[in-house]
Design goal:
Length: 548
C-alpha cells in the first residue's frame, strides 16, 4: 500500500469537507455538483484515516444533499442539468451516488441514507437504459452508470443497453485520439468510464483504448503540468487543462501494464498537489488496489517530434522547451462555428519554461473571410512542417436568361452571408489569396515563414503571451494588452525564461479580422493575454523568428 498516496488524498479530502459544509444548502448547484459534494462528505465519513471518520455531524448535511437530489428528480427518473430530462447529465450524478451507496454499506447509522440512495438509483437507471445521448462521450458515461447500477441492482435492460452502445465501437484512432480530440473529456469522462465498464461489465479489451490515450497524453504534457488542448473539438480548444484529472488513470494503467512512464506521470501529479485531488479518495476506497505501490518509474518523453496526421497536429519537445503546430480545424469541411467543431485559429504555440506564447494567429484583410485556418498539416522534414490555405471571394455576374424568374430568387449562402440571389446558379469572378506558413525548428527555437500569393492586401500576425511576464522592445497600442513590434526584436521574460521574437515589420497598424461570421453578431476571437502584432502586405512574405 502506498501510504504517501493515501495521505495525500486524505489531506486533500479533509480540506474539501469544510467547504462543502459551508455551502451544502446551495440549491442553485447542479445535481452533478450536489452528488459530488455528497461523495466528498461520505469519503471522509467512512475512511478510518480521516479526522472526519464516523463524525455524526456529517450525516445531516449528507442527508440534506441527498434530499435535494430526491426533490429534483423527475418522475421519469431523470434530472435537468441545463438540458431537460437529460440521461447523460443524470448519469454523471448517478455514478457518484452508486459509489456513495457502496461506501456506506457497512454503516448502520447511514441505513436511511442508503435506502434513499437506492430509490434514486432504481428510479433513474431504467431511464438511462431507455434514453439517448448528445455526444460521443455521453455513450460511455451512460454505460458506466448502468454498469454501476447493474452491480447494485441487476437488471438485463442495463446490460443490454451497455452492449448496444459498445456495439457502435469506441470512437478512437489507433494512436489514442478520441473523436472529440479533447483532453478534458478523455480525462473526466471517456477514460474513467471505459475503465468502469471494463471492470464491471467484463470488457477487459477496453483497457487498451485507455492505455493508448494515456500514451498519447505523454506527448501532450507541458513541463508545468498542463495538457495541450489545441486540437480539441470541444470547449477546451481555447483554454488550459491541468494534468491532475488523470491521476487514478495513470496509476491504474501503471499497475496494469507495468509502464514506468505512467508511474512517473502519476508521481508528478502527486508531487505537484494541485487540483481537487480529494475527489479521488472515493475511487480508492471503492477499489483499494489503486493504492498499491506503483512499478518503478521510467522517464516520460521529453525530447521528441510527434506528428498526428489524424488531427493534423504535431508536438515538439526539447526538455523545458515545447511547441505545438496545428492545421486540423474542421472549418474547411464544415465552414461554420459551432459546438463540437474545431475552429480555433491558433496554429502555433511555443514555450520556454515559464515563458509561454499561448497563441500565434494570422489574419489577412480579405473580404471578411477571417483568420488563417490551414487545410491540413504536411510534414516536410525531420523538423519542418507546412500549413496552407486558399480563400476565394466571388463577384457574382448576371444570371443566364433561363435562370431568371422575374425578381424572386432563392435565399442562398454566398460563403460569408445569405441573400436572395440564387448564388448557386450565377457565373462568378473570383479574387483569391493563398497563404503558406512554413514551420522550421532551429537550434534555439523556430522560424515561421509566411508566404502569400494572390491579391494585394494587408495582414496582421498576432502573438499572444500568457499574462505574468514582461514585454520589451514593443510599443503599446490603444487597447489595453495590445502592443506592436515595429522594428528590431522584442522579448517576453518570466523570471529566468525568455522568448525573443521578430523582426518587426513597420509602423502600419492592421486590425485582426475575425471574419464576418463573428463580427455580424459583435463577436470576436481576441485571446486573453499580452498581444503583440506584426503587420505586412501581400503578395510576398516575411519570417518570424522565435528564439530562447
Amino acid at each position: 500500500m502506498d501510504d504517501d498516496f493515501l495521505m495525500l488524498l486524505t489531506t486533500a479530502n479533509q480540506a474539501q469537507i469544510p467547504l462543502v459544509l459551508a455551502d451544502h444548502r446551495d440549491t442553485g448547484d447542479s445535481v452533478r455538483a450536489v452528488a459530488r459534494k455528497a461523495r466528498r462528505l461520505v469519503s471522509g465519513y467512512v475512511w478510518d484515516r480521516s479526522t472526519y471518520h464516523h463524525d455524526v455531524a456529517l450525516l445531516a448535511p449528507i442527508g440534506r444533499l441527498v434530499e435535494q437530489l430526491v426533490a429534483r428528480q423527475h418522475e421519469d427518473g431523470l434530472y435537468d442539468v441545463g438540458n431537460l430530462h437529460s440521461p447523460p447529465d443524470s448519469a454523471f450524478a448517478i455514478q457518484d451516488l452508486c459509489i456513495v451507496y457502496g461506501l456506506l454499506d457497512a454503516d448502520d447509522q447511514a441505513a436511511p441514507l442508503r435506502k434513499t440512495l437506492a430509490e434514486i438509483v432504481r428510479k433513474a437507471a431504467p431511464a438511462l437504459a431507455a434514453g439517448g445521448v448528445h455526444t460521443p462521450n455521453h455513450r460511455w458515461e451512460v454505460s458506466a452508470a448502468l454498469a454501476r447500477a447493474n452491480q447494485l441492482f441487476p437488471d438485463p435492460r442495463y446490460t443490454a443497453r451497455i452492449d448496444d452502445w459498445l456495439a457502435e465501437g469506441v470512437d478512437a484512432t489507433s494512436d489514442g485520439i478520441y473523436s472529440e480530440r479533447s483532453s478534458t473529456y478523455a480525462a473526466e469522462v471517456t477514460n474513467p468510464c471505459l475503465l468502469t465498464i471494463a471492470r464491471l461489465h467484463d470488457k477487459p479489451e477496453l483497457l487498451e483504448y485507455v492505455r493508448r490515450n494515456l500514451e498519447l497524453t505523454l506527448y501532450l504534457l507541458e513541463p508545468n503540468g498542463e495538457v495541450d488542448t489545441t486540437a480539441s473539438r470541444r470547449q477546451d480548444q481555447k483554454g488550459v487543462r491541468e494534468l491532475w484529472w488523470y491521476l487514478t488513470q495513470f496509476r491504474e494503467l501503471a499497475l496494469h501494464t507495468g509502464d514506468g512512464r505512467f508511474t512517473t506521470v502519476a508521481k508528478s501529479i502527486q508531487a505537484r498537489g494541485s487540483g481537487e485531488l480529494g475527489d479521488f479518495l472515493a475511487e480508492v476506497l471503492e477499489r483499494p488496489r489503486l493504492s498499491a505501490v506503483l512499478p518503478d518509474a521510467a522517464p516520460a518523453p521529453s525530447d521528441f517530434v510527434q506528428h498526428y496526421p489524424s488531427q493534423a497536429s504535431a508536438r515538439v519537445r526539447r526538455g523545458s522547451r515545447t511547441a505545438t503546430i496545428f492545421g486540423g480545424t474542421d472549418f474547411h469541411k464544415i465552414p461554420v462555428i459551432a459546438s463540437g467543431l474545431s475552429t480555433n485559429p491558433t496554429f502555433f504555440k511555443f514555450r520556454q519554461g515559464a515563458a509561454i506564447l499561448d497563441s500565434v494567429r494570422l489574419s489577412p484583410q480579405f473580404f471578411g473571410t477571417g483568420h488563417f485556418r490551414a487545410d491540413g498539416l504536411h510534414r516536410t522534414g525531420a523538423g519542418t512542417f507546412k500549413l496552407q490555405q486558399e480563400v476565394r471571394a466571388a463577384y457574382h455576374l448576371p444570371l443566364a436568361p433561363d435562370q431568371r424568374t422575374g425578381g424572386r430568387y432563392a435565399l442562398t449562402p454566398e460563403g460569408r452571408f445569405y441573400s436572395s440571389m440564387d448564388f448557386e446558379n450565377r457565373p462568378k469572378q473570383y479574387r483569391s489569396l493563398r497563404t503558406t506558413v512554413r514551420v522550421e525548428e532551429v537550434a534555439d527555437g523556430f522560424d515561421l515563414g509566411f508566404g502569400f500569393d494572390g491579391d494585394e492586401t494587408v495582414y496582421a500576425i498576432e502573438l499572444c503571451f500568457r499574462p505574468g511576464g514582461t514585454l520589451s522592445g514593443v510599443e503599446a497600442l490603444d487597447a489595453d494588452g495590445n502592443y506592436q513590434l515595429v522594428s528590431g526584436t522584442g522579448s517576453y521574460t518570466v523570471g529566468g525564461d525568455r522568448i525573443e521574437f521578430g523582426p518587426g515589420s513597420g509602423p502600419a497598424r492592421v486590425a485582426m479580422d475575425p471574419g464576418e461570421q463573428y463580427t455580424y453578431l459583435g463577436g470576436n476571437l481576441t485571446p486573453d493575454g499580452l498581444r503583440v502584432y506584426l503587420t505586412g502586405r501581400t503578395p510576398g512574405g516575411q519570417v518570424l523568428r522565435l528564439r530562447v
